[in-house]
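Hi all, long-time lurker, first post. I run a small reading group and we've been trying to get comfortable going from sequence to structure in the token notation. Rather than ask abstract questions, I figured I'd post a concrete chain and ask someone more experienced to write out its structure so we can walk through it together at our next meeting. Sequence below, copied exactly:
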Amino acid sequence: MPNSVTEAKIFACTQSEVLAAQIAKSFGAPLGNVIFSRYSDGEFQPSFEESVRGSRIFIIGSTHPSSENLMEMLLMLDAAKRASARHITAVMPYFGWARQDRKDKPRVPIGAKMIAKILEAAGATRIITMDLHADQIQGFFEKPVDHLYASTIFMPYLEGLKLDNLTIASPDMGGSKRAYAYSKSLSSDVVICYKQRKKANIISHMELIGEVKGKNVVLVDDMVDTAGTLTRAADLMIERGAKSVRAICTHPLLSGDAYERIENSKLLELIVTDSIPLKKKSPKVKVLSCAELFAAVMLNVHHNKSISSKFVM
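-- Answer (accepted) --
Happy to help. Here is the structure in token form:
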């Protein structure tokens, strides 16, 4: 008997409850009932308060640090598996620990690979995520991975700004592929920042490859953490004669002094998605929702329809 939409159930990890409610609304299904029991030492236990036997279920939760967010996802996957759910999809708007996608020096883990294996062992039969830090992380999974691009959200916004002399910029060499994809769609020039780090989150030197004088520049990246790279790049571009500098970053980690750096920088605005809830509001930070994108993909997955149109960079 063919699957019906009433058989799909959506549940939320606590860190993504607001986004999950918006996704469920767009999907056309109520958010499922799950409660978390907590012990005084911090240990917690999720419990599905409705039957999921034989159902296709979607568990929505970004796995940004702390590790408690990842643990929530793992425990909910295991609970669904043991409750005999038929298909268990981990919907992870932000896939945490993705920066550990390779060994960049001796005696370090490949954290992203380890997380992929743990998710599968916990019970995930499919992964839906957005703007992975490195595309090859999809290969760490043996289960299907639907890797969505936030460009489908950002591109209409950029086109609506109607900026003249638009130039797309990558804040580092690693993001050049992403910058070229945006520039191709927008028929714009590209510039790249070359940076050297003393250690993680600390930049010792930055140079600009390309011309930005008289240009309206948009920096493109998959995430913004301390905002040190973005703000330094923005300030450098204004020094080199850029008319304006904006930044598009899918995942707003915004840790440490990020908010202060952004507000004190030459950035006109930082456009992000709600893959991770903001710690606080800022006049320079604009949030575009990814709820409709995820809801549309989840509906197509549920009805066994093509989702290739959502993979357009």
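A couple of things your group might point at:
The chain is about 30% helix and 25% strand.
Confidence is low (pLDDT under 50) at residues 1-5.
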